[in-house]
Amino acid sequence: MTQILVINGHPDAAPERLSGALATAYQQGAEASGHTVRRIDVGNVYFSMLRSAAEFTEKSKDRSIVEAQAALLEADHLVFVFPLWLGGLPGLFKAFLEQVARGQFLLREERKHGFPVGGLKGRSASVIVTMGMPPLIYRLLFGAHGVKAFTQGILRLAGLSPIRTSYFGGPDIAPPNCEKLIKKVHQMGRRGA
What we know:
Blueprint lengths: L2 E6 L9 H15 L3 E6 L11 H5 L5 H12 L2 E7 L7 H11 L5 E6 L2 E4 L5 E8 L3 H6 L4 H12 L6 E7 L7 H15 L2
Parallel strand pairs: 1-2, 1-3, 3-6, 6-7
Antiparallel strand pairs: 4-5
Helix pairs in contact: 1-7
């Protein structure tokens, strides 16, 4: 079976937050299908912010970041769940990713065909994004640039492929409709997709 890592990128790790509920639904669905699942709730991870390029080039010595890096390497499939804030990832989630990327973890200097090599090559990803607006408006009117920066500028460069992105918003995330959404994400977990 597949080793799955679920990362809840909401800065508030409370289980009643929609991102937390979706991460739990995916995790439970995947476990019900026999997959091995680990989980990281970014809101429960404490780390310092990067302040210089020199820090970014050094490997992290922070235990929580080193453990997160090990979990990423052990996984076959990564699942990222987060709310859209100001058109992109919440700041704490972005800071977490910067810490994880340190020391060439996500993008190695060794070159293949002139390009750096992704440190997570051979893994796939699912991205689950929630937002207040209808997803169609975010995608068509705003071009989904914040999420594309994450999927293309971080995940794809790190070697992840394929990357499936699911957008949920507007009335779908409000009660009672969010119960249907939680069930849908549970089914995604059962499929390991």
